[in-house]
Write a structure and sequence with these properties.
The structure is a homodimer of 239-residue chains. Helices cover 83% and strands 0% of the residues of chain A. At the A-B interface, helix 2, helix 3, helix 5, helix 6 and helix 7 of A face helix 2, helix 3, helix 5, helix 6 and helix 7 of B.
Chain lengths: 239, 239
């Protein structure tokens, strides 16, 4: 009995450690998202460079987590919710790594965009979008830590707000381009930055879906076009 | 002994079935990629609509595969390469689902773009890029089926060609926009289509990385900025 308890507590500790690594990875990604946009808003090239350099920490953390999950499965052969946890961790780590890449992309464009002159107000709009994405990510990580299905479901709904924010940015940037061809290049950078943030929201939704799967054993239906919610009609309406 | 063999062959059959589902999912995604660009080149709105409608088949196949992998792990408690196989299948299914979404995005933009007048030659360029992406996906699936590490390594290298093709498209579309503001809207659609295809290449690279991990137990280093390889300098040079 003692032996069994012993094994049990060691197993629980492994699961806790795996979760802690995911939360830590999430924290790094959160910082990367918000800082990349702060770097843009403050014209802080130094900060932007640091984000690009530090992304490898996020990447190696994903590899660490994958290997730890693999080891845990082989060693403990988890079943039921423990097994779903391991699978969810793998999927979430993939999503976090991708979000980290998007933040890195924003930072890379920042270093380039600072050479040009981005339209006034545009960088503030990007920062607003980034803040919303960061909060959404934070809440998705909380829902994971707390196995909070309700919070997870809310996140899937809230990602639509991110899409709407992106859509209005898309229109904003498009008007800059229409008005002045010289703003096309900086506006394209801003477009891709906003797009990277909007896509991050899709990956945060995937995290929330994993939380729901983990807690309920069922995957929520997802009929949204992941990765490209640019307003077709709004573009269509412009000749 | 017989009992053990019996379990064994049943287990092998489960693994074979799981692999077959992944290959089938890959086939559907391949078709979706190439057809979405053919729809654009042939102004075939009907075909574009069909691709958008059929994407749910790809999505439900991913869910099927996830659940089958979960069941197999719980039932057979695989270890070593078998366990890595299950993990690789999960990651590959995620990548295929995402590529399917990108193809759907291209198809959705096709239906919109056909309302406008895309610059001559642009649709042919998109189709060329799509063909290369489709072939890359096919080869990555073969490398998975054959556990061919060499072929998988080649795919990671070949994805750079996709990036280069995308980069030249990016410049091509940018010039259209510079020359004529009325072409900005169709060019933006073409941009996002090309971007969706380029990102598909990144996910195909992830598939190849999973094959290497599956066969060798080691994840290849990946220092490429996934999801955003737009040529910064080429954009920078246009003030």
């Amino acid at each position: 009995m003692i032996e069994k308890d012993h094994i049990h507590s060691a197993f629980d500790q492994d699961l806790k450690n795996l979760q802690a690594s995911v939360m830590r990875m999430g924290g790094l990604v959160e910082a990367s998202i918000i800082n990349s946009s702060i770097a843009l808003a403050d014209s802080d090239e130094e900060l932007a460079r640091k984000i690009v350099e530090d992304d490898h920490m996020i990447d190696s953390l994903e590899t660490e987590i994958n290997l730890a999950a693999l080891e845990l499965s082989a060693l403990r052969q988890p079943i039921a919710q423990d097994l779903r946890f391991v699978f969810a961790v793998l999927k979430i780590a993939t999503n976090l790594e991708r979000i980290g890449d998007y933040a890195k992309n924003v930072a890379k464009r920042t270093t380039v965009l600072l050479q040009t002159s981005p339209p006034d107000g545009a960088t503030a709009s990007i920062l607003r979008l980034a803040r919303s994405v960061q909060v959404l990510l934070k809440d998705s990580l909380d829902s994971f830590a707390e196995r909070d299905v309700e919070k997870a479901r809310e996140i899937i709904v809230r990602d639509h707000d991110i899409d709407l924010m992106y859509n209005s940015l898309f229109r904003e940037f498009l008007t800059y381009m229409m008005e002045d061809p010289r703003s096309i290049t900086p506006s394209m950078h801003l477009h891709f930055m906003a797009k990277n943030l909007e896509r991050s929201g899709d990956h945060i939704t995937s995290v929330a879906e994993q939380v729901i799967f983990l807690a309920t054993g069922e995957m929520p239906k997802d009929d949204r076009p992941v990765g490209d919610t640019t307003p077709f009609e709004s573009v269509e309406s412009k000749p």
